[in-house]
Amino acid sequence: MTTQQAASAGTDAITLEIVKNALGSIADEMALVVLRTAYSPIVRDSMDFSTAVFDRAGRVIAQGLTLPIHLGAFPAAMDNVVRRFGTAGKPGDIYIMNDPYTSGGMHLPDVYLIQPVFYESRIEGYVATIVHHADIGGMAPGSMAIGATEIYQEGLRIPLMKLCDAGAVNDALVTLLETNSRMPGQLRGDLRAQVASCKAGERGLVQLLDKYGADGFGRLVEALHDYAERLTRQAIGTMPNGEYRYEDFIDGLGDTPVPIAFRVKVTVADDTIRIDWTGTDAQVQGAINGPFATTQSVAYAAVRCAIGVDVPNCEGFSRPVQVYAESGSIVNPVEPAACAARGIIAYRMFDVLQGAFAQIVPDTIPALGEGGPSVVSISGRSPDGEGGARGGNWLITDGVLGSWGGGRNDGCEGIANPLGNLSNQPVELIEARLPLKITEYGFVTDSGGAGQHRGGLAMRRAYELRSDHALLGLRSDRRAHRPSGSHGGLSGSPSLNLLTRDGRSTLLPTMPSTVTALLKGDRFCHIAAGGAGHGDPLMRSPQAVREDVLDDRITEQMAREVYGVVLEGTGRDIDAQRTAEMRGRLQTLPAQERVAKQEALFLQSTVADAAAIGKL
């Protein structure tokens, strides 16, 4: 270590901020490499991936601008890497894994690549990527079979092993992965993107080590962990001590769903938080179980939202946060529980934690949003194939998102749930690549939960099949158990899955246990849940209600019968006297009657033949 390195390795606040930002830039550059070089739309367009940088002990020191749902995804995997390989690695090694039960993964489509970074012949850190691969095998296209009863049905399990040994790619392993995938070209391309991302991260980390030296960098990293811990403890210390409980439900699986309960107790004790999921339902015979890495990720994301300060994305942040879940529960399942669609329970856990933290920091947490992105998977075969597909397979795994609940302002629209920094796939690219026509894509009138601050409008997307046959898989929720309003706000609208064939619409379950066969000309429409409202709708500014009508966010009937605002004439001017009278009458109605009126108007605005789909 040179004198210049020693001098620049001090842990003063300015140097620490420079290093923190440099590490964040490395992780962000890694993310951009994946984004620009990935082959599959779920990575390139939906942005379902993450990147991170680690210290020599395998602790997170930076995470890229991608998914908060992966905040707790790396620690268990890195513990396995350090324990298994330790200092025995070689420059050019890259490890690969995806298995939740042997290696610390989340679900099989999420493939981890982890590279040790050498400096002066020693491992001084690691860089890693998680990418959701389009298809990793299993019983359903897209490797997300809701009806799977054990992980063996979900795809290829990859225990922790080497993809690259001293820079030499294990071609036999890559061939094995490709052979088991319906989309081998996309799989190979996305693996290459991950390798390129790791190489970019390695270059950036070595540059920092050149600047500060290994020992100096190590001291700065320790200071960064301590700084993150200190900020987190200070923020928690401003919260009132106590125990805060909340519960919510997933609608359930299949044609006759049984609700699944999620119960949490959040304990604030001085400068620590304990999140306890005792009382949550047991693991299920379906693919929605969430490995503990998912449960940790959700907890960390929820705490970050609640504390409201900018804490570095490093291990020190998690030190004051303890997470507990009973073994064998749906939030900590035991092998061989299926978990490919575990995302849906991650978003429900986040909602439950939002409900608990709303009691602790009510001015920070908004009403509940749509419950996370719905996933529409459509697959088929065509003579020419797509994206390197085997035997003409084609596939789309499309997320439909996002609608936030109201809070200090109206709920956001078209922006992903805070837990998943995802993006809707562009219509033009879908139609150019696949035998699908997007016939609808937009917001749904009357779908945002009414409130002083309205919930975000629901997203609607419809797909028309232009080939002869295809298969449809679904992961959605929030029909029976809608997003809850806060402080007198009304719940968001329910989600709907509508299949139209020969002019007749059928309502499909939120999470069918089997795929649905599609025929040419069939039209499937998914309507996500709307965000819930915050505050009494009768307290909303009449002018804001009028503007919502002018913008087609709500109908005049919704304005009158739920918000109590009466508009008149072609200019839709506010009739102040009749508005006061209407609001006076509505104040006497039971809350449930106002909710029922809101839902009736939503269905009237949304479904051409509401009677055909029956009672929700």
Descriptive notes:
- This protein has 616 residues and is of the alpha+beta class.
- The termini are far apart.
- The chain is 32% helix and 21% strand.
- Helix 2 crosses helix 7 and helix 8 (292-307) runs parallel beside helix 9.
- The chain is globular.
- A seven-stranded antiparallel sheet has the order 2-1-5-4-3-6-7, with helices on both faces. A five-stranded antiparallel sheet has the order 14-15-20-17-18, with helices on one face.
- The chain has a domain at 3-231.
- The longest helix has 29 residues, at 184-212.
Structure described in brief:
Helices cover about 30% and strands about 20% of the residues.
Question: Any descriptors?
Answer:
616 residues, alpha+beta, seven-stranded antiparallel β-sheet, five-stranded antiparallel β-sheet, 15 helices, 22 strands, 21% strand
Tell me which oligomeric state these chains represent. single chain
Structural class: alpha+beta
Share in helix: 25-40%
Q: Biggest β-sheet: count, sense, barrel?
A: 7 strands, antiparallel
Q: N-to-C terminal Cα separation, in Å? A: 69 Å
The number of strands is: 22
Mean pLDDT: 93
- The largest sheet has its strands arranged as 2-1-5-4-3-6-7
Poorly predicted regions: 1-8, 385-390
Question: What is the overall silhouette?
Answer: globular
The helix count comes to: 15
The proportion of strand residues reads 15-25%
Please tell me how large the radius of gyration is.
Answer: 25 Å
